[in-house]
Automatic annotation (TrEMBL):
GO molecular function annotations of the record: aromatic-L-amino-acid decarboxylase activity; pyridoxal phosphate binding; transaminase activity
Name of the molecule in the record: Aspartate aminotransferase family protein
Entry annotated with the keyword Transmembrane: no
Family statement: Belongs to the group II decarboxylase family. Sphingosine-1-phosphate lyase subfamily.
Recorded superkingdom: Bacteria
Length: 482
């Protein structure tokens, strides 16, 4: 049960065990994991980041007066992000632990700025990141989702305007959306926010550090930064296309007054007066120091070169996908993300394609159907994919051929019926265990080598039930000794 040995182990022994544990994880370098991780492909960046992290890991960013060096580094990170995204001398920001925290804080600041609204709501396109739903759940803010254009998957400004009312404290757009890699019409949506007198947040967690460079390279990137009237806050992750270690993000506000309601203070206890800029109190200085070092090392021209490599890889992979019989790219992506769907009646299952790609050493992320978006495979393409496009496409074509030979995954009618009969509100551990057994999973902690059957089963479950099933599965995974 306990991971604590009776006696301390030697450093070499501990590190050897750690390497063994990491050997089962997805590769984080080489461009073979096309989700979750971002790889610049540059030599020396990891070593620099690790050294910088070690130099500042023991420092605590809770109190900037005690650690002014961290304060300087965080201000530098905010300044770099603001410069990239059209900030003015009035622009301020906060370094956070990641995109989700940045989005949470944007919602929190909007809610706290309007104490006169007793039933606050936020309006967002249905493609906005799930972090905003999390924010609504955490902070008691009603989330109003607006369907997007069924062909382009972009938000529809007129529909967004129709959803805004007296309770709206924040309007959201994506640059780009995670699911399809398209940039919403930020300028038009910002006008909706201005007319309504409400805040406007642009979730540029993924695109904020790469879209400006793609524009410099000649790409037709829609405006989405502070140059757009009405944009009051922007989130951009440095651990994505700034290629910094996790987890570092920046939440920018157009001015200090907009940021003020994000902060928290508590003096009504006998200890120190707690002052928090983020959801966290204690914050390690390691991540911001590592990010600061990486940004200083790569520099503006370095990021332009990385964006050029990424853009080339995206173009080659997208063109290659369109040549594979049975595959298509959804929408018209603006950035570095692709959603790969099956053509009409393809005769194969994309979940099987994902499994076969895994056998070949690639991770592509299945995305379930939602509204007009069919089941698809998500690809996050980075600079490290440049040079291996042909290998990826050859393996993708081979995986499609094997999936076609295997035929579509079928969910047994009795199993589908059992799923349909489940109520997510009253699901019992016994029902969950029975479903696992029916799906061929006797032990939730023993992950199967192939996930197509499991994903097909999840695909027939309504979203609320899928959430509950996966939460039960997650709980079964996180067990001491597991």
């Amino acid at each position: 049960m306990s991971a604590l040995p009776a006696e301390g182990q030697a450093v070499t022994e501990v590190l050897a065990e750690l390497r063994g544990l990491r050997s089962a994880d997805l590769p984080t370098h080489g461009g073979r994991t096309l989700a979750y991780v971002y790889d610049s492909g540059l030599d020396g960046v990891d070593a620099l980041a690790a050294a910088a992290h070690a130099l500042a890991a023991s420092a605590n960013a809770l109190d900037p007066t005690a650690f002014p060096g961290l304060l300087r580094m965080e201000n530098d990170l905010v300044g770099a992000a603001a410069n990239l995204l059209g900030g003015t001398p009035a622009t301020v920001g906060t370094v956070t632990s990641g995109g989700t925290e940045s989005c949470l804080l944007a919602v929190l600041a909007a809610r706290e700025s309007r104490p006169d609204i007793t039933d606050p709501s936020i309006v967002l396109p249905s493609t906005a990141h799930a972090a905003f739903h999390k924010a609504g759940h955490y902070f008691g803010v009603r989330v109003v989702t607006v369907p997007v254009d069924p062909r382009t998957f972009r938000a529809v400004p007129g529909d967004m305007a129709a959803a805004v009312d007296h309770s709206t404290v924040l309007v959201v757009a994506s640059a780009p959306s995670y699911a399809h890699g398209v940039v919403d019409p930020v300028a038009e949506i910002a006008r909706v926010a201005v007319t309504a007198g409400t805040r406007m947040h642009v979730d540029a967690c993924i695109g904020g550090w790469v879209l400006p460079y793609l524009r410099r390279l000649g790409a037709a990137v829609p405006d989405f930064g502070f140059g757009v009237e009405g944009v009051t806050s922007i989130s951009v992750d440095l651990h994505k296309y700034a290629y910094c270690p996790k987890g570092v993000s920046v939440l920018l506000h157009a001015n200090a007054e907009l940021r003020r309601s994000q902060y928290f203070a508590a003096a009504g206890w006998p200890g120190y007066t707690m002052l928090n800029t983020t959801m966290q109190s204690t914050r390690s200085g390691g991540p911001p120091a590592a990010a600061w070092a990486v940004l200083r090392h790569i520099g503006d021209e370095g990021y332009l070169g990385l964006a050029e490599r990424t853009r080339s890889a995206v173009a080659a992979i997208r063109a290659g996908i369109e040549r594979i019989d049975g595959l298509r790219v959804l929408g018209d992506p603006d950035a570095t993300l692709l959603a790969v769907a099956a053509a009409e009646a393809p005769g194969f299952d994309l979940f099987t394609v994902a499994d076969r790609m895994s056998v070949r050493g690639w991770y592509v992320q299945p995305q379930f159907a939602h509204e007009h978006s069919p089941v698809n495979l998500h690809l996050t393409i980075t600079a490290a994919n440049h040079g291996s496009e042909d290998a990826f496409l050859a393996d993708l074509a081979g995986s499609v051929a094997e999936a076609r030979a295997a035929g579509p995954v079928e969910v047994a009618p009795e199993l589908a019926g059992a799923v349909a009969a489940l109520d997510p509100e009253t699901l019992t551990p016994e029902q969950f265990s029975g479903l696992l057994a029916g799906a061929g999973l006797g032990d939730a902690a023993a992950l199967p080598s192939e996930m197509a059957g499991i994903n097909a089963l999840l695909a027939v479950a309504p979203a609320a039930l899928r959430e509950r099933l996966l939460l039960e599965f997650l709980g079964a995974l996180y067990r001491p000794g597991g």
